[in-house]
TrEMBL record, chain A:
Membrane-spanning intervals of the chain: 271-293, 313-331, 343-361, 367-386, 398-422
Superkingdom of the source species: Bacteria
Protein name: GerA spore germination protein
Keyword Transmembrane: yes
BP terms from Gene Ontology: spore germination
Any single Gene Ontology cellular-component annotation: membrane
Source organism (scientific name): Paenibacillus phyllosphaerae
The family this protein is said to belong to: Belongs to the GerABKA family.
Keyword Zinc: no
InterPro entries noted in UniProt: Spore_Ger, UPF0353/GerABKA_families
Keyword set, alphabetical order: Membrane, Transmembrane, Transmembrane helix
Automatic annotation (TrEMBL), chain B:
Membrane-crossing residue ranges in chain numbering: 7-23, 35-54, 75-96, 102-127, 139-159, 183-200, 212-233, 265-288, 300-320, 326-347
Keywords: Germination, Membrane, Transmembrane, Transmembrane helix, Transport
Family: Belongs to the amino acid-polyamine-organocation (APC) superfamily. Spore germination protein (SGP) (TC 2.A.3.9) family.
Organism whose genome encodes this protein: Paenibacillus phyllosphaerae
GO biological process: spore germination
A cellular component annotation (GO) from this entry: membrane
Subcellular location: Membrane
The name this protein goes by in its record: Spore germination protein
Amino acid sequence: MPLLHELKLRFASDDDIFFQPDHILHIPVVFIGLTSLLDLIQTKERLTKDAFAKQGLAADDAGLLRQLGESIDTGDLRSAVTSLLSGKMIVFHKPSETFIAVEAASKPLTRSVEEPSDESVIHGPRSAFNEDIDTNLGMVKRQLNSDKLAVKSYAVGANSRTRINLLYLENQVEPALLTAIIGRFESNKELDVCNLQQLSRMLGLPSWAAISPYIRTELPQDTVHYLMRGKAVLLLDRFPCALVLPNDLWSMLAVQNDLNYPRLFTLSFRLLRLAGVLCHILAPGLYVAVVSVNPEILRIEMALTVAQSRLGVPYPALVETLILLFVLEMVMEASVRLPKSIGPTITMVGGIILGQAVVSAKLVSNLLIIILAAATIANFTISGFVNSISIRLFKYVILLLAAFYGILGLLSGMVLVCAYVSSVTTFGIPYAQLARKSRG
Amino acid sequence: MDKTLQVIVMCIVTHLGLMFFLFPSDVMETVDVGHWLPILVGYLLHFAFVALYTKGLAYYDRHDLIDIFLTGGRTIAVLLLLPLAVYFIMVNIITVRAYSEIITIVFLSNTPLWAIMALLLTIPTYIAMTGIESIFRTGMLLAILFLPIVLFVICVSFHNTDWHYLFPLLERDSFNFITERPFLKSLFIFTGSFLFLGFVRPTVTYNRRRILIASWILLPLVLLSVYIPLLTFGQDTASMLQFPFILAVDTIDITWLMFDRITGFFLLGMVTFVMLFVGLVMWATNRLIHRCMPRVRPEWITLMLGMVIFAASLFVRDWGSVHRLFWWNSIFRIYAFSVIPLATYLFGVMKARKLQVSP
């Protein structure tokens, strides 16, 4: 019995595996499976019922067992291992040397469909993706009832197999994009994909770009919207987001749920987000430029107020801004990291530091606190967490230029950011493509 | 892909960046009354040459200017394109140097000139390196961000105008200006920013007719750039000023704005457009040089070009030298403005004839 022996050898260091002699009806068999992935009692029950129903259909015992699942060749260790790892059970019939992989009742290792935790939705469809790739695919199919939806399935990785589904609408997707993605999947099948950096490497996307090549969304509604706009969607197993390729500038301003409101509201939401983007990248730079380089552009009353608020602050505006920004970034990072029960502490501590104490200690001006608080709030108006990180980075470029060149630096920083944003392309499709005509 | 809109926006934005600084004083030097006449003549010349140029280009599908001239042989191509390359490089030097000076005067009196020039060159160099399609997208983004500010300033600049200064509309012997130095200098705003159309053909397609129609948008803007200072100060005062339009905008006092000088924002909006212009011209120059040295990577050529322009700008000592350089460049400018479009047109016609004869 080479295969059984090989399996035992292969899983010698994995105590999770079981080889259990048992019977289906009257037939003596050995059940082989992984305890952590399947529910043996339920599976047995199901198998017995199934065998009972199919009793008359087969001539002999081995024939009956073959009716229950897929038979595996005795030499095919690879597919036996894959079946076991994907949660199937193997039934071994000793007299006829037959191996059959049967669907098993899986243990509940996936949470049920829940509300989105990272993208809240107001008055819109509220189910979000979870870690199970099949559930996610099902949710997309539920949302988009179309025979044009194509799904290509890949299992990649040499050490750990990861399932990836590629979804697109046949009549909408950019053909060049599709060929490029499929080509990369085919040629880099052996690369492990455990995180998005590895996925980017597999797809041959630049790894140092300041703008993410994907849009991430955990909402099936948004995913479908992107599909209909001709984008390709990747679903990764054990990853509770859909990855939309390629990213575009518009995704920073538009949320699909906007369209569930009257047009005027939609427009105002999007304008507000645009204002948020501009406020976040310009406000700190504007403060530094106005305080340290070009105070004359302000009205005299305004300039005096600004100067007054900085009375007693011992260091230059750039240092002051950088210190406070550093604290703010730390607060943001800490509140992501902290468990929900301790979260309020950071709010309180941060609030005290940033609110009163730092001003009364004359370490920073209170105007700066107002400006940075506004800028930070503005950052959260941007749709998509990853997009907001890009904007957070761009802010520093503009801040530094503004410290050297004042308002000129501020605006040339904007030119630089615009030029960078325009130069980013994913699979030849520009990030700053503002409009794309719908195909077909 | 059809990029007509992007091409139009690019043309308008780069023209906008150039027209509000030196142009008004040149026109006021040209004539004392009836300023619309030299502007109109300049504009019509521009329109005619753009029409010829695009017509000539249209005969060749997906060929750039270099390919077209190479059909006439290597020597002819070099003879035709060498002055163009010199013109482009000089335009960059002058623009960077002049705008740095303007920024120092209006804005950053304490910052050393070289630092401003370095900024005004670094960013265009980066823009030029990203390639033409990216330049067009940058143009669109900048237009979306800064055009509203610029249009707002243009609208409020009517604040202090006195319409009596509009008259007289014409006087006798009005056409004497055509051969005069200030008029030839004033033509510069029309020359720089349409020649790039000849280099974008391989990647970008556009609708010629719509571009020609859209170019009429420029006329009112050019008229405004001269007439706003004129209506604010009158010819006698305005002609004494170095940057009449900037000063006219400086006179505006809007109480409800928190900024004291909206000139700053206007000027800097313009500077962003100028950066784009310099980037565009650098890209076109890069194309010319790259054809001569196909082995060197285009990024390196752009980088070297940026350094050469920076070094050259350092050698221009004062505002007088800028003006002298500007005048020397007129020869190349008129060449680029007239000979290149005409040659392109002739090459196009010749090709069309050949096609007619051969089948």
